[in-house]
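Aim 2, interim progress. The first record below pairs a target sequence with its C-alpha cells.
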Amino acid sequence: MEPALTAPAPAAPPRPAHRRWPVAVVLASVMFLVLFDSLAVATALPQIATEFDVAPDRLQWVITLYSLSIGGFLLLGGRVCDLWGRRRLIVASLIVNTVGLIVAGVAATLLPLLVGRVLQGLGAAFAIPAALASAAALFPDEPWRSRVFAVIAGAGNTAGLAGAVCGGLITSYWGWRWIFLAVVPVAAVAALASARLLPPDPPPVGERSLDVAGAVLATGGLLALIYGATRSSEQGPTPSAVAVLAAGLFLLAILVPLERRIRHPLLKPALLRSRSLMASCLAFAAHSASYAAVVVVGSLYLQQVHRLSAAQTGLVLAPVLLAALVSSVPAGTLIRRYGPRTVVAVALVLCATTLTAVALVSGSPLPVVVALLFAWGLSAGPIYVALTREGIGNATPEDRGTASALFESTTHVGGAISVAVFLTMLGAGAAFGTVQLVGAVAAGLGIVATIALMPGRSSPAA
C-alpha cells in the first residue's frame, strides 16, 4: 500500500535580488552543518574510547552509523523532498540534526551517542537533497545558478577543513562533547533562518504516493552496499562482507524493473535516461575514488612513510581542502564561458595528472608531496560546482530532490567501494604509489564518462 503525500507545485517564485545572498548563505549553511561533524568526530574517537572504555571495534560504529544513515536514506530523502516540499524538509531536517547533536553531546554511555549519530545522519540524508534542489529551483538563471552552487561547494569544503582542523582543537581544550554541543545554537539559528528566508513551498497540485516498496529496496540496497564496502575496508573481503555487498546489488537490481511498473516510483526511469544526470553521477563517483586516494591513502602514506602523527597529517592535508575551496570560487565563471563538460573534463584531467605525479614521487621529500597534493586540490574545486549545476539544475522541477539524492548517493557508494578496494590492495602488499595510480585511473574513467555522456552545452533548465 502506498501512503498518499501531497505534492508541491513544481514552480517557485524567484527571490528578490536583495534576498539572493541571504538565501544562498542559508543553503550553504545547511551543507556546512551536516558535513562538519563527519570529519570532526574522527579526531575525538580516542577521547571517547577512554571515557566510555570501549574497544575499537565498537567505537568505529560512531563513524559507521553516521555514514550508513546518510548514504542509505538519501534516495528516500530526495523523494520526500519532491513530495513534501523543500523548505519544510530543510527545517525539519535541521531540527532532527539539532536533536541528534544534543543527544550525542550529553550521552552518558555509548548507546545514546550512537542514537545521536543516527539522528544526525538521517537529518543530513534529508537536508542535502532539499538544499541542492532548492538551489536549482530558486536560482534558475545565470550567473546566480552557478554562483550559488559555488557557494554550496565552498561550504562543503570549508566544513571539511574546519572539521579536520577545529575538531582536534575543540577536543583538546573543551572535550569531545563540545564537538556536538558547540554546533547546536548554529543549527537552531539555521533552522529559524531557513523558515524565515526560504520561500514557502508551493501549494499542492494533486495527490502523489510514496513508493514504499521502492523505498525499502533502495534504502536496504544502499545500506548493504555501503556497510559491505565499509566492512571490507576494515577486515578485508571476508565471505560475510562479500555476501552483504551481493545482497545490496541484488536489492538494487530488483528495484529497477519494479520502478517501471509503479505508478509513482521512488526513482523515475526517466531520471536514469538523463544523460546530464548519469554523466554527473558517474563522474562524481570517479572523482570520489580519486579523492579517497588522496585523503585516505594519502593519510596512511604520510603516517607510515613520512612518520607524521595523526594531527600532523591533518594539518598537511588541510591545504588540499583549502585549495579546493579557493578554486571553486571562479568555477561559475568558467562554467558559463566553457560549459560544464569542458570544465569537468579538464579538471579531472588535472586531478588524474597530479595524482599520477604523487604516485610517481612516492618517498620523495615531504614538501614535494605536499605541493602536488595542493595542486590536486586546486584542480578539484570546479568539479562539484559543474556537476551539481549540470546534473541537478537540468532535472525537471518535480524531480530535483530525487536527482540531488541520486547524485549525492554516488559519492557515498563510490567512496565506500573505492576505500575498500584501496585498503584491500594495501593489505595485500601493494605499494602506496600503485594504489594512488588506481585512483588516477578512476579519475580517467570519469573523463571518459563526461566526454561520452554529458551534453556539450547545458540545455535550459526545465
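The second target in this work package is listed in the same format:
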Amino acid sequence: MVLFSKKDTVMHIARLIFLASFFFLFSCEKWLIDTSAQHAPSNARLLLYLHSTSVIPTDISFTVSEIKIQAEDGSWLKLADGPIDIKSGALVDRQILLQDAVVEPGVYKAIKIILQKASIKGRDGDASLALPQPGGEVVIKSDIGLQRKESSVVSLAWDTEKSVAKGYMFQPDSIEAELQKPSAMGLLLFISNSASNYITIIDRSLERVVGAVTVGDRPMGMALNYTQDRLYVVNSGSRNISTIDTTQFSLLDTILLTSGLEPTDVVIIPDEKNLFEGKLYIINKLSNDVTVVSTVTRRVLKTISVGMHPSAIAVDTIRKEIYVTNEQSNSVSIINAINDTFVANITVDSRPAGLIAAKDKLYVFNEGSHKISIISLSLRKVISTISVEGPPKRGIRGFNDRLFVVNTAANTITFLNSFDVITRTIPAGVGPIGLAGDEKRNRLYISNYGGNTVSLIDIIGEKILKEFFVGKSPYGVLLLER
C-alpha cells in the first residue's frame, strides 16, 4: 500500500485543479472560436454557394452524393461528400452554402455534382426523375482562378424551370456557375468572420453573397474611409490591420499593430485635408488602451490609456471625439481626436458592452444591469436610463430616430420608437452582435456570432425576412452605398 503525506496530498489536489481549469478554459475557447477548418497560408479558399433564379420555382428535389472540381490538367479533386439534400422551395429568395473548401491555387475548369436521386412533385405526389448519365453527373463549366492566400465565391445559379427534359429527366444545363466579380451597383455589406479569417461581401441589390477576401487571423472590427473605397479590418489574432479595396474585392496592404494586446473594434476620423486618408482608433481589451494609427504613414502614432477591459468604441466626427466603453470599470472614456489625449471618464451602469453616438447623446448598453445609459455629451453625464428584458450588447440608431438593440446572451433583438419606448422584442439568430442599417430600404442587418449567419430584418414589420450563410463566428457588419 502506498501512503501519501498531507503535503503530497495537497500538492496532488492542486495539480488536479490546475489541469481541470486548463481543460475548462481550453474547451471554452474552442466553443467561442471554432478553428477546425484552418486556412493554410499557401492555399486558396473556395466558397461554393447555390441559389435559384426562378421566382416561382418548379417543385424539384435532388440529393448530392459528391462535389468535385476539375484542375487544369483534367484531374478531379473532391470538394465535398454528401448526402446534401436540395429542395427548390427552400431556395426561393435564398442562397445556401454548399461547401467552404481549402484547395491548391490554380485554375479549375469545371465543377461536377454527382446526384444520388432527383424527384418532382406532381398531383399524385413525388415522381422520380431519371438522372444524367453517366452516374448522375452534372458537369458545370466554370474557369475558376484561385490565387494563393485568396478567397473566392462561386454561386451555382439553378433555373428550376429548365430542370426537367422530356417530362422525366433531370436536365444538367439548368445549373450555371457565377464567379466572383466586383458589384456594379455598389450596394454592399461587409461581414468579418472571426473564426474563418475572411470577409464576406453581400450584394444588397441581389441579396446574395457575391465575394470574399482573405484577411488576417480573427478579423473583428471594421471601418470605411470617407470615400468608401478602403475598408480597414482589425485582425485580433495576428495583431494587424488589413486594407481592402472595396471596388475590386482585393487585399491592398497590411498594417502592423506594434502596440496593444487583443485589438478588436475600430473607428476612423477622416483627414480634413485629404478625405481619402485619416486616423484609425483601435481598442485593445487586454492592455486597456487605444491605439492610434495613421492611414498615410501606416504606422502607430500613439497609445492612449483608458479603463479596464475596453469593449466597444464610437466616434463623433463633428465633435472630433472618441468614446470607449470600459466593461470592468463601468465607465465610458472620452478621447480628444484632435490631439489624441484622454479627456474624461463618465460612470455608467454594470458591464457596459457597447455604445453608439447620436445627436449629442451616447447610448451605452450595459449587459450587467439590463439597462441603457443615455449620456448628454454637452453635460458629460448620464441623464436617463432605459430598462430592457435581455442583457443589451450592441445597438444602432436611425430610421427616423429609432433605436435597435441586440441582446446577445438572450438571442433577441429589441425595437424602440423615437421616444425610446420599447415596441417589441423578438427572437434573433444565435449570438446576435453586429448591426448595420439600410435606411433607404428599411432593412437592418445583424450578424449572428453563434449561428454563422446574417439576419435581414424588416424594421417596419419588425420581423426577420431571411438569413445569409456566411463564415464562422461573424462579428462586424458594415454597410457601403455608393
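The first helix runs from residue 6 to 32. This observation will shape the mutagenesis plan for the next reporting period.
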